[in-house]
Amino acid sequence: MTEIGFFGNFELALSNGEYWKNEKLFHEIEKRGFSNFNWTEIPDDVLLYIFIHDQPTIGEKRKDATKKEYLRDLNQFLSYLYNPANNLPSLRELKPEDLLGYQRYLEGKYKKTTLLRKTSVVKHFFRYLASKEILERDITLQLKRPKTKYEELVNRDLFDHEVRQLLDYFKIADWFAYSMVFSLVTTGMRIMEFSTAKWRNLRYEERVGLHVLTVLGKGDKERDIIIFDDVLEVIKENRRRKNLNVTVGALDDTAFFPKPDGTHYHSTYLSNEFTRLVSNAPFDFIKDRFVKEELSATEGKHIKYRITPHTCRHYTAAFFMDKGIDIKSIQDLLGHASMHTTDRYLRRKRSIEQHAAVKLGEKSFINSLTN
């Protein structure tokens, strides 16, 4: 077992897969000052450890899921670095062109969204090392920003008639899927919010005559979700089938959308199950999406057309816009920090409605010639 010791008091067992969870060593390093260490002898693994634990914002911690993702991407980089076939120097001797070479390597393996994320993590890592003077200079200057035009990466269109077909089908075929689809298309909840919500955080607001669920959104910010009465009845039935409490306002610590024992599903599991179940639904519009994905792949675009939990957020935004709800209210409903994000959700829909041919108000071109 490789162990790195500092001050004779702290040891970091790098062979332990959970080593990254131990924050004590980082806090000790931070307290004593980065400039007081000879970083030339510190293993690369420890540099990764320090990077993922140094929070960019005071008072806001990175989530464990984010740390694990960073660690996975950076370990992939180290594997590339250590591969003799790549003929690279040590981490501290890398040059800008070496990082560009790694980006070219990733480009041949991943779609654009993944390439953007992995490039971003490596860039932040090396800029961090330079800012702490662990490296003499920032070597990320030659890295290129992957082209990530939103429309080229994903298609989030979901229409009312498709939602109706999915709900009608799953209501009979699969109550688990029915509960998920109904909850997500009507609330705009993120799958992480849905998976971590608790039953005790559901209440009835007499002022508006609706039930409200408080969830923990991005940045650990609380926000309120309106649960329509028909959606609540579906959620209650899901709980009844698992012999769980359905009394609103009860001090019940079980999950809002629970496992049979009342505990929470992991968000990744729910996301994967949602996508799998919807993808297997027997509808032509589902099959067409996969055909479009295959065609886009042959053209080198790799646009994702399949329906995911995030697709439901886009649908919710479009649904409320169709009902005449203002964009600021939709922004608040979705929990967007910036209205720009909400605007991006709705841009495609608005571009069609504001098209010159639509504004003409004619379905027949010949008829328009006589008007």
List keywords for this structure.
single chain; 371 residues; mainly alpha; DNA polymerase, domain 1; hpI Integrase, Chain A; 2 domains; 17 helices; 5 strands; 7% strand; globular; DNA recombination; Integrase-like_cat_sf; DNA integration
Please characterize this protein's 3D structure:
There is one protein chain. With 371 residues, this protein is mainly alpha-helical. The chain has two domains: 3-143, Tyrosine recombinase, N-terminal domain (DNA polymerase, domain 1); 160-353, Intergrase catalytic core (hpI Integrase, Chain A, Orthogonal Bundle). Helices cover 52% and strands 7% of the residues. It contains 17 helices and five strands. The chain has helices at 24-32, 44-53, 64-82, 96-107, 112-131, 150-153, 160-173, 175-187, 191-196, 229-240, 267-279, 284-298, 309-322, 327-334, 339-353, 356-359, 365-370, and strands at residues 3-6, 10-13, 202-205, 210-216, 222-227. The strands form two sheets. The protein has a three-stranded antiparallel β-sheet with strand order 3-4-5. A two-stranded antiparallel ribbon has the order 1-2. Strand 4 and strand 5 (222-227) form a beta hairpin. Helix 2 packs antiparallel against helix 3, helix 7 (160-173) packs antiparallel against helix 8 (175-187) and helix 13 packs antiparallel against helix 14. The longest helix is centred in the first third of the chain and has 20 residues, at 112-131. The relative contact order is 0.07. Mean pLDDT is 80; it is low at 1-5 and 7-15.
